[in-house]
Write the structure tokens for this entry.
Amino acid sequence: MNTKIMARIALLSAFGLILQFFAFPLPFFPEYLRYDAAEVPALIAAFAIGPWAGVLVDLGKNLLSFLIGNAPAGLIGITANFIAGASFAFVAGLIYSTHKTRKQAVVAIAIGVISTTVVMAIANYFWLLPLWGVPRNGILPLLTASIIPFNLFKGSLTGLFTFILYKKVKVFLEPEFTKKKEAYVEK
């Protein structure tokens, strides 16, 4: 990984951190399930640079957030945020990298939303909600009534924002060798 790519990852991590400050609750969901667009930079990195870049952006954003004390839900909340964001960015970035078209972006986002929802349902059921002290008999109703619908909604909204923004910012983020290769192919 070269210096330019690392700088892009750091910049997108910082954008993600800034976006976390604008979290807000959504109607019909519990107060603790808040939406922020902080996963958009990770998803953009996954599309422009590659799936692991999206994971690194999400890791950087969450580490920075935890280090500066912007983690109201503490270590468990930051861990949940990382698991959700990293699984979304990795899966969507991996699928998009196979064929970079608008249609493939829609497919990548849709499968990314579904995969992160499944991953978060499993993580919450077996690990995260028990760490919060939620009794075993209360986990499944909480998952079906709020956590699964929230992850579907949040992922879809994040995917929509990414889809709208990606074309506008990709030229600043894609590695130079990709631009040179595309310029050569277009001639």
